[in-house]
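User: Good morning. I'm curious how pyridoxal-5'-phosphate would be positioned relative to this chain. Could you predict the structure with it bound?
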Amino acid sequence: MEIQQNVLDRQYRRYQDEYEAKALQVLRSGQYILGQEVAQFEENFARYIGTSYCVGLASGLDALWITFKLLGIQKGDEVIVQGNTYIASVMGITINGATPVFVEPDEFYNMDTRKIEEKITERTKAILVVHLYGQAAKMDDIQGLCQKYQLYLVEDCAQAHGAMFNDQKVGSFGDVGCFSFYPSKNLGAFGDGGAVTVNNEELAKRFKIFRNYGSEKRYHNQIVGANSRLDELQAGLLNVKLKHLDELNEERECLAKRYMSRISHPEIALPRLAPGCTSIWHLFVIRIKRRTQLINYLEEKQIRTLIHYPIPPHLSEAYQTMGYQSGQLPITEYFANTVLSLPLYNGMSEQEQDYVINSLNQFQ
Ligand SMILES: *Cc1c(COP(=O)(O)O)cnc(C)c1O
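Assistant: Good morning! Here's the predicted structure, ligand included:
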């Protein structure tokens, strides 16, 4: 049996009729950019997350960099972010010329909230909290620090559509929630897409102007903006998928719980949930010291795994000029060397999962 780390077409087939009807409807509508599907999705998604507004954008990275741009964050400013994130989180900061200041993660793979305060300086303008692998971060601690030091709070929710801290959805805690609808995300489109969720009406309006070349009224450009629009086809398909998001997330939770209760290899560290935090299980990440041997063993059994992420941003070639050496973020680097994402996807059968579980438990 061959098992991929992720499979995208099974959820598509489950709702195939709905997706295809919507795609045809959009294709036949003659309206392909900023029409009623985008407006409807923005309303639906804001309601789902629990914010007053949502603005559709072209990608998760755009959501991040445009957010920092509109918050006025620039060269000389510092933004606190966790060391073990996908590099796009960091690019959202550095595209604006600002400096990322890295905090080590806790045992739940999210920002260690006990280590934030020591990183705050005169230049700190914001905290970017990443709800990594689908689990909500400890938002009470982080909100407290943002209030105490008058910092912006930005959430990178690209992996956490629907995850909650104390029964409140991520993306509704800070000034801006940034989302990606890249196909492999829990709320994935069939191409690129992104959005921000905000409560501030004025800020929501500025996102709408910025994404459309800085114009609210056609050919009346108020500022130099970007072309970063969620398109009608993706918005239409997202409207279909959003209706099923909770059931898709629940299915992943069942698979995750099955892994948790059945994987019993003594060398494997299973993921854990922090008090008050839920996960939508974007990824099921284990840790093992003999990682290369395990990957090779699973490959022989045709079980594919992935590493999220093998090179932490501070050691990436793209950020060589920041001058970090290995050893400077030891926990982040330890995770980069030991984490492994097991196969988990909507539509995964018990038989497929049992094959993975039994293979893991037999690893010598
Ligand atoms: C996917 C992802 C992004 C970037 O989203 P894109 O839509 O691919 O640009 C940003 N941050 C995190 C944590 C992600 O997982």
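The CA atoms of residues 160 and 298 lie 28 Å apart. The pocket of pyridoxal-5'-phosphate is lined by residues 59-61, 85-86, 88-89, 130, 156, 158-159, 180, 182, 192, 194 (CB under 6 Å).
Let me know if you'd like a different ligand tried.
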